[in-house]
Amino acid sequence: MTELSRTGLAGAACALTAAAFLCAAGTSGSADAARPILRARFSPVAPAPVAARTAPGPPSFHGKALRRGPGGAWQPAGTLAQTVSTAGVPVTTTAGDVFLADGSETAVAVNPFNGHNLATVYNQGYLNTSSMKTSADGNLTWTTRTFPNGSGPFSGFAYDPWAVSGNGNGVLFTGLIRTDSVQNSAESRVVVARSTDGGASWPRLFTPARSGMHDRQMFDVDRTAALGGGSGTAHDGKVYLCYDIFDAGGSYVGSFFQPVSPAGAGLSEVQLSDTTQAGFHGFEFQPVAGVADGQVYLMANAPSLDGSTAYVLIHEMNGGGSSLLHDKASWNYVPAGQHLGSTIRFGLNGHRIGGPSMDIDRSTGRRRGTLYVIADENPNPADPTLDQGDVVLRLSPDGGTTWSMATLPGLASGKTQFFSMIDVDDNGWIHVAYYQNETGSTNGGVLNADTANVYYTVSSDGGQTWAPHTRVNDPADALDYSDPPADLSAQDYYLIGDYQQIQAGFVAGQRVAYICWSGYDKNRSNIYLNDKRDRVNCTSVTPPLDSDGDGVFDPADNCPTFYNPAQQDSDGNGMGDACQNFPADANVDDTGSSQGRIDGSDLFVLARSFGACQGDAAFDARVDLNPDGCVDGIDLAFMTSVWGLVLP
Amino acid sequence: MRTDVGASGVRGHGSHVAAALCLALLGAPALIACGGGGGGHHGVVTRITCGGVTAPGQDQVEFACPANSVSPIAVRVVIGPTSSMDVYGIKFDVVFDPAVLTFDSPAMDGSFLNKDGNPTVLQAATQPNDPGRLVVAVTRQGAVGGVGASAAQTTVVTLPFAAVAAGTTSLVFENGAAVDSGLAPIAAIQFGASVSVTFQ
User: In chain A, fewer beta carbons within 10 Å around the N or the C end?
Assistant: First the structure.
């Protein structure tokens, strides 16, 4: 049999394996050191007491859209553009980065039926109706679209963008919070817009009626079963909207969950937390629709009372908003960076950074329902001369009850990473992007840098193994910071946003990830729109292939078409054991009629050891064909892929 | 190469698939008539006759007459009353004329090795360079004992075949063996004579 046909057999075996059997990722093998394979080391997350003393932080719109002016009145933040430059729109397209507009804090949605169809929304300033664009060609060209006003007077400038895809082809959702058109008003409203024509038009779908300053709106859509949602249809298409409310004095009122019917009608609002200690269950809620109809997971943030650590709280809503299960899990961590000035905000480069982000695996694979939370955490909080930020991934396989964690392997040692973004695509691949401080005048810029870049990595096996991290921005588009940073306390350290987004999609079966991020150029005037320092870029990334689905991407895989997550290579020759001696290894019993042939005598041995792992009495290493320490369906698939074969 | 992994590889882990396949086959009882019937498949007028079938003796593995006289036919491999107390697996080749017949996967597990509910693994496939040799094995799964004595004839496995052209071919056992839970051969279990199948 030729090498080519062996490869084909192996591929068939893997396809069979993927379809019918558990594909458990193995533990690290001895070959790790020799190959650039990035394996995560997960450990249990220490839960924090549910009744931990936490409190809401300041609103995110401080410095983003509003700040306190003389007399305490809300005023537009100083970073907002006052007017449009007459110099024209300096659109640049360099390498893979496509410049969209001046702006920051980006959100992007990808049409699940057409990965070329995108919508982005971002903070921009006074030109509120233009703070969104759509693309029909996969981030090659973008068209400015009109975002709708809220009801009544809420047609002022906008902040807190969000975007998700809907259930139909061309159905996309975007959201912004619109301020009152009356200057110095203490009112603003979430506005959710929905396009059903691929982003050409954006009628308003919903605006909550609750008075106050709305803040940190995020939402998700209940998926149909075809798009990974639950099997029922009662809640399909509902929008699960969360927002915080602050009063005119800037005091926290509470956080709310507002389900919205597919027709745009507000259903019963649920208060998720309030200002009392007993009632506070976090703020800045991110809802993530689950894998059961009407199920939505809610991730909330909360600073400790002294501001020294940040808490994450996980809640679950069911019945489309009728049943709330508080505090499924909670943990705390020290965010990346240090406190900014005298605030309790953590930040880097003189600006605040984002909180954690959550997503869920809605694939049909064995990790369906797994929740992932990514956050930027400080490995050296007591020493700001050292690395001030790592990207940490937590996952829960049981609906948010228990969690394990791992620092993302492959992060540049000694450098600070932040602004991590996550998307879990339709096949359960985990796409991650983040910023990294590169250089700076002090301690290599770990706390305050003069340049930063954007990186990307991906995992096809639920976060166990990762692709090499790749800088994805063009060098010309690297963030160009002031070093040391200016004192932005008057604007509450808002700079390039509180979050950025990555979303993946598929075009003709080809996976593509879109990272929509905020750049920064200190050399621009920051006075006029079109000459602002913060700039929205979207960068397209084509992830590497994992042909055999073993979590190790083809360029690093020692058997690229053979499912061998352990990558064992006993003789160190670069070819994995799993394929080096295959199919001869499958000829376990070489006596009698089985001499030189893979048949029942070999299958008997495998069947006898089926389900056994190393250490078990029944384990037989001869039939651990991949070899991953267990005799399972993968080994059976390997043997059957060469069933009846007479060896040369 | 055509590969069949016991309907879903490991019986008991995908039994709904196996059940569906069994229903699909058993759902045509009106067509079952050994040595008669009619119909068509692969352009062949599939009036078949089946000869040489005998009731299996004790510890004897035999072919049963195809239950369906219309192509595809379902050839059952049966075992007679057995005194063996520890049968763990059975393997054999079925040799036939590929100009007349082709294996029409999937094979289906019988009720002999799994009669106590223990999962089994069934594998049956030909090789591209030897399409007239169907390599079959069915085995219990895990570190368990074999099945005990049986007083009646029991189906070990059912093998579907489709007609390729009119003609006669024999179905012959080769390389037959049964093993106990220690994977040692069971000498008492023997494989019987061939049967002939004619497509007109």
Answer: C
Q: What is the dihedral of CA A330, A336, A340, A344, to 10 degrees?
A: 10
- What ipTM was assigned to the predicted interfaces of this complex? 0.76
Determine contact, residues A377/A333, Cβ cutoff 8 Å. yes
Q: Among A374-378, A589-593, B35-39, which stretch is predicted with the lowest mean pLDDT?
A: B35-39
Phi, psi of A125 (to 5 degrees): 130, -135
CA distance A190 to A255: 13
Residue B151 has a CB neighbour count (10 Å cut-off) of: 10
CATH number, span B2-199: 2.60.40.680
SS3 A348: strand
End-to-end CA separation in angstroms for chain A: 7
Question: In angstroms, what is the C-alpha Rg of chain A?
Answer: 26
Contact A643 B125 (CB under 8 A): yes
Closest CA relative to residue A362, chosen from A457, A289, A420: A289
B77, B90, B133, B139: best to mutate for the A interface, most A CBs within 10 A: B139
- Cβ of A610 and B133 within 8 Å? no
Q: What's the DSSP call for residue A169?
A: T
CA distance B138 to B111: 11
Q: Does A608 touch chain B (CB under 8 A)?
A: yes
Taking contacts as CB-CB distances below 8 angstroms, the residues of chain B near A601 are: 91, 177, 179
Q: Which pLDDT score, from 0 to 100, does residue A69 have? A: 61
Q: Amino acid identity of A171? A: V
Q: Which residue has the tokens 């059976």?
A: A636
Q: Give the pair of three-digit tokens for residue A86.
A: 């007459």
Right CATH for A66-541 from 1.10.10.10, 2.120.10.10, 3.20.20.370, 1.10.3720.10: 2.120.10.10
Query: Among A84, A195, A202, A99, which residue's Cα sits nearest to residue A142?
Result: A99
The least confident of A293-307, A473-487, B63-77 is B63-77
Closest CA to A161 of A534, A522, A456, A479: A534
- What's the average model confidence in pLDDT over B123-147? 93
Q: Could you identify the residue written with the tokens 């495998």? A: A606
Res. B69 pLDDT band, cuts 50 70 90: low
Q: Count A/B contacts: CB-CB distance under 8 Å.
A: 106
On the CB side of A643, CA atoms within 13 Å amount to 33
The answer on pLDDT for A65 being more than 70 is no
Question: What CA–CA distance (Å, rounded) separates A159 from A162?
Answer: 9
- Chain A, nearest residue to B15 by Cα: A20
Minimum Cα–Cα distance from A631: chain B residue: B142
Contacts of B91 in chain A (CB under 8 A): 599-601, 603-604
Counting Cα atoms < 13 Å in the Cβ hemisphere of A547 gives 15
Tens of pLDDT, residue by residue over A176-204, are 999 888 877 889 999 999 999 999 999 99
Q: List chain A domain ranges.
A: 3-35+559-641, 66-541
CB-nearest partner of A644 from B9, B135, B143: B135
Task: Phi first, then psi: give them for residue B131, nearest 5 degrees.
Answer: -70, -10
Q: What gap in Å lies between CA A232 and CA A39, rounded to an integer? A: 37
**Rounded to a whole number, what is the distance in Å from the CA of A371 to chain B's nearest CA?**
26
- Kindly state the tokens that stand for A281: 């269950």
Structure confidence at residue A568 as a pLDDT band (50, 70, 90): confident
Interface test with A, best of B2, B3, B61, B180 (most A CBs within 10 A): B3
Contact indicator for A171, A194 with CB cutoff of 8 Å: yes
Q: Which two tokens stand for residue B69?
A: 């006289």
What CA–CA distances, in Å, run from A471 to A99, A253, A448?
A: 17, 41, 20
Q: Residue B23: CB partners within 8 Å, gap ≥ 6? A: none
HSE-up of A68 (CA within 13 Å, CB side)?
11
